[in-house]
Amino acid sequence: MGNIKIGFPRALFYYAYYPFWYAFFSELGFEVVASSPTTKYSLDLGVQETVNDACLPIKLYHGHVAELKDKVDIIFMPRMVRVRKMETEVFCPKFLGLPDMIRNSIEGLPRIIDERVDLSKGLFPVWKLCQSVAKQLDKSGVIVWRSYKKARRCQNEFHRYLVRGIPVEEAINAVVTGQSCQKKEEYETDIDLAILGYPYLIYDSFVNVGLFDKLGEMGIKPWTVEMVPPERLEKQGKYLSKSLFWHFSNRTIRSTLYYLHEKKVDGIIHVTAFGCGPDAMVDKLMELETKNTGKLPFMTLSLDELTGEAGILTRIEAFVDMLRLRRKKNENSISHHG
Amino acid sequence: MKIAFPIMGNSYIAFKQLIKEMGHEPVVEPMISAKTMSLGVAYSPEFACIPFKILLGSYLEAIEKGAEVIITSGGHGPCRAGYYGILHQKIIQDLGYDTKVVVFDSFTRNIGDYIRKLNWLLTQGKTSWWKFYKGLQKVWLKIKVLDELEILSHNIRPYEINKGETTKVYKKCLELVDETKNKSQILEAKDACIKMLKNISQDRSRKPLKIGVVGEIYVLIEPFANLDIQATLGEMGVYTERSMYLAHWLRENSNKSHHEKDVIEAAQPYLREKIGGHGINSIGETIMYAKRGFDGIIQMAPFSCIPEIVAKGILPRISQDNGIPVMTVFLDEQTGKAGLETRLEAFADLLKQRRDGRLLKAY
Question: pTM of this prediction?
Answer without folding.
Answer: 0.91
